Amino acid sequence: MENTDIIIIGAGAAGLMAARTLAKAGKNVVLLEARNRLGGRIHTLENGTSLQHAELGAEFIHGDLPITQGLLNEAGIKYNSASASMWNYEDGKFAAEGHVIEHWEEFMERIMQLKHDTNLEDFILQEFPGEKYAGLRESVRGYVAGYDNADPKKASAFSIRKEWQNEHEDAQYRIEGGYRMLIQYLADEFKQAGGHIFTNAVAKDIDWGQYHVTVSTDIGITYQARQLLVAMPLGLLQAEPGLKATISFDPPVDYYTNALKSLGFGAVIKVLLEFDEAFWYNDEMRQMTGADLEDMGFLFTAEAIPVWWTQMPVHRPLLTGWLGGPPAAEHLNTSDEDMLLLALGSISNVFKIDLEKLKEKLLTWNVMNWTADPFSRGSYSYDTVETAEARKILSHPIGDTLFFAGEYLYEGTAMGTVEAALTSGLRAAEMLLEYK
């Protein structure tokens, strides 16, 4: 049995940020992580693997974000611009993005006038009915599913308005060596400050009273502390009790559990395909497509795997496929091999390459279905109509003893990002430090 000041469950970005902050402030902290690695939904493939430094989880820094970039600068970790052109493939043709979606200005005007929040699906059906707006409705649904990983039937129209109102061409960055560099830095800082990390520690039962917590793992190891910070993915906190890696509280915290269940949590599948050459850049492809894809960063299609991106500005023969939202959730039980076939079929259709020939060009691949992953059960959060009220509840501790942290508690414009997780972890640590 371990006794300490604070136990943190979850060694993702939020948990590690909180742990590092608390330990450096002199607190005795134990960090429990269910996986055999740190980082949670950050998962950079390690040195020595064929897809070295490729990201199965978080990949980009979306804009100039103070906490993420501040930590990287502090650690001396380099990050480089990943800004590149966006292309569309539609009706058999490539087009550099920049074309305006029909009725888009009208959509933004109407959503800005919205007085009472509703889910986005109801909003577009009510405000933009009929065949005239069919293309607009599909574009809105596709963007919400792809970018926000959200279900339009649940996503808050107010939240989407806030996000799209602030949407501009932010700089994009990638970290040299991947996000694992940041995770390792936080972990090293935590351990140097006297913190303890236990991996393969699947928390199961939490018995608590004011200023006393006992956490029991699935193999019967117990840890005791004065306070607990739960920094697990929202998908686990929403899952039915008894499923792998879920936790139960005694006494129950139903008020908080109900608040957690009212938040939105997305679905995503990420596919990495490494080929023997970056054929999308070669002269033959240029002649066939009638387009110079030399600076292509992102490609948006109507295929089974609709969104793809390259490693620009590096010409690495790696394509990353992305399927988000309800279409990804439908593939909860689809095998990795079947997802690979969907991905190859999508690339075959877009680039007019025979499927068997494409398979011959494929060197290695990886599929990460985050919704099927038992330690995450989804991708990242999105706001529902009920989120604002739920967040008020979850942002306050229970009996000065149980605290929560995670990207789902973030209220800024960088929703669903590593920045959101780091911000929440820092805030939770600052709250805990108010207690002597």
From TrEMBL:
Record flagged with keyword Metal-binding: no
Keyword Glycosyltransferase among UniProt keywords: no
One Pfam family cited in the UniProt record for this chain: Amino_oxidase
InterPro entries named in the record: Amino_oxidase, FAD/NAD-bd_sf, Flavin_monoamine_oxidase
Coiled coil: none
UniProt-listed Enzyme Commission number(s): 1.13.12.3
Similarity comment: family membership: Belongs to the tryptophan 2-monooxygenase family.
Protein name according to UniProt: Tryptophan 2-monooxygenase
The organism of origin for this protein: Mucilaginibacter celer
